[in-house]
Design brief:
mainly alpha; Farnesyl Diphosphate Synthase; transferase; 12 helices; about 0% strand
């Protein structure tokens, strides 16, 4: 049986900035549109955290039963390492999706936007079929695009819309920034796993692009939010606070551009997620002041 520490590791708390940051960004842009609603913001956060935790356990289960995680460069997984039964991990994943669904229904009830039920259903399906099912899209090079859409436009604009009943340019900019940051995290993860993914037949975008172009893609994605900061700052000067996050991406960019591989890329994932969170918080403060 897996220990408590191994189950906690399975949660992958280090991925939570990818869930928290879009809700902060979406709530901040809602506040800018005079529509901030604390209960809806907190429920949106529950949805986001439940979904990303469910995704983590679902990936652990699906990759584990396929044998993809038998040889790993990063942290060991519950199923792949044999420390937990596949059925138990699957049960936890489904439980997380259930919590996300309940919180999502509460959001729809309070906001009255029942048509967004389809977005919730697509989000849960996207979480499962990333590595689940007979033809997981994460194994065919579509993972980064899906992450951009779900953690960018869907999360940010969804959070904004249920609170403010509208979408504006600041919201769209924040959505693009969050999507770029989230995709950068996955690109770094898949860059690290190129050798083992090739061995197991997992054709991620990194495997398809190759090492050099994947590194170029990472740098492009991680710098894109600061272009958004510049454009937003032309209209709302305090939004330039988003540049504070630039300090956190310097080290990851150095590691990626100098050719680091394997475990040396783990700090890149961590720091990119933290940069995403800091960008969201700093930009939220800037938009509120503005």
């Amino acid at each position: 049986m897996a220990s408590v520490a191994e189950w906690v590791e399975g949660v992958r708390v280090r991925t939570w900035p990818n869930a928290v940051a879009p809700v902060i960004a979406g709530s901040a842009t809602a506040a800018g549109a005079a529509g901030f609603d604390l209960p809806l913001a907190l429920l949106s956060l529950v949805v986001a955290l439940s979904l990303i935790t469910g995704v983590n356990f679902a990936n652990d289960y699906s990759d584990g039963i396929r044998g993809t995680d038998e040889v790993r460069t990063g942290p060991q997984r519950l199923v792949g390492s044999g420390s937990a039964r596949p059925g138990s991990v699957l049960g936890v994943a489904l439980g997380c999706f259930g919590i996300a669904a309940i919180a999502g229904l509460a959001v729809l009830y309070l906001s009255g936007h029942w048509w967004l039920l389809s977005l919730g259903a697509v989000s849960i399906a996207g979480a499962w079929f990333y590595t689940g099912g007979k033809h997981p899209y994460g194994y065919a090079g579509w993972g980064e695009l899906a992450v951009f859409c779900f953690f960018g436009p869907a999360a940010v604009l969804g959070t904004m819309y249920v609170q403010a009943d509208s979408i504006n340019g600041s919201g769209i900019g924040a959505a693009v920034a969050m999507g770029a940051f989230s995709s950068a995290v996955l690109v770094a993860n898949n860059l690290r796993d190129i050798p083992t993914d090739r061995q197991s037949g997992k054709r991620t975008l990194a495997v398809l692009l190759g090492d050099r172009d994947t590194r170029t893609l990472y740098v492009t994605l991680v710098l894109a939010p600061f272009l958004i900061t510049t454009l937003t700052g032309l209209r709302i000067t305090p939004a330039l606070l988003g540049y504070l996050a630039l300090a956190l991406v310097i080290s990851p960019i150095r590691r990626v551009t100098r050719g680091d591989t394997g475990l040396s890329l783990l700090p890149v994932l961590r720091d990119t997620g933290l940069a995403m969170l800091l960008w969201a918080v700093a930009t939220a403060v800037g938009l509120t002041i503005g």
